[in-house]
Amino acid sequence: MKLKDKVALITGAASGIGKDIALLFAREGARVAIADLDGNAAQATAAQIRAGGGQAIGIAMDVTDEAAVSKGVAGMIDAFSGVDILISNAGIQIIHPLEEFSYAEWKKMLAIHLDGAFLTTRACLPHMYKAGRGSVIYMGSVHSKEASPLKAPYVTAKHGLIGLSKVVAKEGAAHGVRANVICPGFVRTPLVEKQIPEQARSLGIKAPIGRRASASIWWIRL
Prior knowledge:
This protein is of the alpha/beta class and 222 residues long. The chain has helices at residues 16-27, 39-51, 66-80, 103-131, 152-172, 190-203, and strands at 7-11, 31-36, 55-60, 85-88, 134-139, 177-182.
């Protein structure tokens, strides 16, 4: 019960890595707010946690919508009376050579990964500052440090999370708030499953066949 009585907001938590984090945090005693664009899926994940004896609520949240983020965080505060941990995990992937990316696709990718991180952080920090403690965790990627073909906006956004985290860490230090970026390598989640054939087609290679690997979770000091 490493996280007993801690309150965690996790975005993009109805599937993939976000869901595994939410389930793990609940097992460790955290009260978890499952935020996801798919409100029904968020509610289903929260119900799964409650069925196992944990505490959780589901929140429909478009992390690119300022009003939706503010409303979702307010709902979490009403339910759990605070927030100790923010995990900014919501993300998507679109794969093209750079010259084939539309401006709309570029803006959508940066909005979800970077604007979403900014909006959720801004909404949570006042509550963390008031409590004198908190941990902000951004789900980066190996692409926060490296680059791959076909992923220009994704790589740009994931690099940007490191810069945002550094600022949050410097500003939050005086208030007992830490910020970190987790940079996992390849994890075969539903999101990645979808992009394997897309990337294989773009690169002219045969897509690998095999069962899905389970997501790995790296603990960071909370």
